[in-house]
Specification:
The complex is a heterodimer. Chain A is α/β, with parallel strands linked by helices. Chain A is 39% helix and 15% strand. In chain A, helix 4 runs parallel beside helix 6, helix 10 packs across helix 15 and helix 13 runs antiparallel to helix 16. The longest helix of chain A has 15 residues. The structure holds thiamine diphosphate (TPP) and magnesium ion.
Chain lengths: 574, 174
Amino acid sequence: MGKDNHELKANQVTPKNGSEILIDALIEAGVTTLFGYPGGAVLPIFDALFLRKEHFNQVLARHEQGSIHAAEGYARISGKPGVVIATSGPGATNLVTGIVDAMMDSLPLVVFTGQVTQNVIGTDAFQEADIMGITTPITKHNYQVRKIEDLPRIVKEAFHIATTGRPGPVLIDIPKDIAANPCADAYDSSFDLPGYQPKVNPNPLQINKLKEALSSARKPVILAGAGIKFAGASEELIQFAEKHQIPVVTTLQGLGAFPGEHELSLGMGGMHGTYASNTALYNTDLLINIGSRFDDRLTGNLEHFAPTAIIAHIDIDPAEIGKNINTHIPIVSDAKNALIEINKHIDETPDYTEWLDEVNQNKQDYPLWYNQPEEGNMIGQYVIEQVYQASEGKAIVTTDVGQHQMWTAQFYKFSQPNRFVSSGGLGTMGFGFPAAIGAQIAAPDDLVIAIVGDGGFQMTLQEMSILQERNLPVKIVIVNNEALGMVRQWQQAFYSERYSESIFSIQPDFVKLAEAYQIKGAKLATKEEFDQQLPGLLAHDGPVLIDARVLQQENVYPMIPPGQGLHEMIGVKP
Amino acid sequence: MKRIITAKVRNRSGVLNRITGLLQKRQFNIESISVGRTEQEGISRITFVVDVDDFPKAEQIIKQLNKQIDVLKVVDITDKAIVARELALIKITSNAQMRTEIQGIIDPFRATVIDVSKDTISVQVTGDSEKVEALIELLKPYGIKDLARTGITAFLRGQQPQANQDQEPFSLLN
Ligand SMILES: Cc1ncc(C[n+]2csc(CCOP(=O)(O)OP(=O)(O)O)c2C)c(N)n1
Ligand SMILES: [Mg+2]
């Protein structure tokens, strides 16, 4: 299709083809950034994009996994859906990890995949993959477009489904003939979703039950999850907690939903959470879960999770309520709407001072801790603490998966929502760095730091290409322990130190790699070097890679060992 | 315990795949599943018989089904006044002499003979599962060569007694 041809179409002389209709629909949906990777089945779409370039900021990752993790980081920080386009077959299957990741962490994505032309679907044609079958269990919803005139409606529905209720990924599979052929018929893009009506307002009866429960409680705790961030309900949460003086535990994905340095904050709960948090979750008599899904990394052994508590659970997804934990006060609602009602209707509550004193004593006596190693040597916890100090706690921080992730969750005290980007539910190595790229695109003026492990970084490091190309000043901090640290830790603790395939015998020269991608690199091997150079490197006007050398044998503590309960933590500060 | 759950769904491509996939992923045991059109254009009814440990588990199935975009309505009708039927086709080894004997067995079940050959006889029976099973048991000694069952399809009776509604399992869908 030549340029002249396109102009003819713009003059409505010939009908638009599917790709042009798609682009109209994307513009109408307010899409400004696209994470796309071309290929045969999506050639018509990319051609149409080329002709209407001015409408989009198009980001070409170097692997579709990079595209989708970047889209996830973008979605988490911007609050807008991340939009991904990939070709059929291998392009589509390269997205699978990211789609599951977004599903587990409830991130809004709209994913477009190319498909072979309709007349050869089902014949094992070149680059055909049954992406509908593959993604049915891992998407909130998926569509295959069978008629061009359905395309505008489907796109509209997809954006609606991805971003409302409990957010999640929606996939649209577009056969090449749909993208290439003109649309002769008139189309109607109005919604048609009778089976999809998320419930967003709380039932007053249940709010009343919570009120009663609070009036007879002596040891209430709030558990703050990611639902608070999606709903933008942090202010209402702070108001609720402060008004009644109730301590707050956050989940991993809830970090920042309640300010980490707030006097009522007990920090993160769960496997590597604080002693104060886990003890409070164990001893509470009224647990108010707002927007968390009682994941097993939080609860530990279910038998010992809040064993004597009345459980109140506010969630926009009714299927999460009662799924893992028997719930007494179910509140199906958007977190913000629920908290507004709670703040309006719940006034007088008992004095919880005695309980607050108890949890605060724990907070004071058993803080997160580590032993400073001998002169010169560095450990991961220290690296994170210094990054926290140097960035004044204000950076957007993404992490990969492993020890460095848990240390970041422990030692970077997030004071605002939407500053922390991490793969929680799926625990996807390779996520952290491309997610930082998406985050930086969403927040071009903010300091974005990708804290990654030397293992996970090697899964998606090719995306360094984008940094120089798009002039994105992402700061990469590799917590380099020359090992798959988290695996090594478990082998040390539970497999008699048989370090099976978890210690690297050779590492690339990360600084040279950075330089190969035309970005600044620095290896910081000692504490002195680190202290001296970190502030300058973080302030550098452009992308930077920091290879921070840390001791291999350091472990993440405290810990609830697998299968154990909240009250059975090991490695608590003596 | 067995629960009978019905779901009204839109006839969109992939909807059945989505539903069976989700039941499998969450490790729900389906005893039977039957699908067919309803009086409304574009809408089908699916009837599941599932075997679950307790009420919360049944509740979880309903919620997971309800979450699907193309699922319109899900109801656990087990404890309501319902009509539930299935159809079974049973082929038995039988020669001419035994036919009358078999006829005598199937008559009280209002089953009918639908096919006869030199050494087989095929029977059709409809009813609730207990009735169908009872007949199958009685015919087993003759040697069942082939058995096809549709699984249960069901809906509510026109009138629901008041008392029955109080027995409804607890619901978190407030
Ligand atoms: C894709 C993927 N493969 C394997 C794992 C299992 N895993 C979890 S943590 C970890 C080690 C990560 O090592 P590194 O990135 O160096 O981080 P560290 O734990 O050393 O901080 C591994 C292999 C995973 N989470 N994701
Ligand atoms: Mg490592």
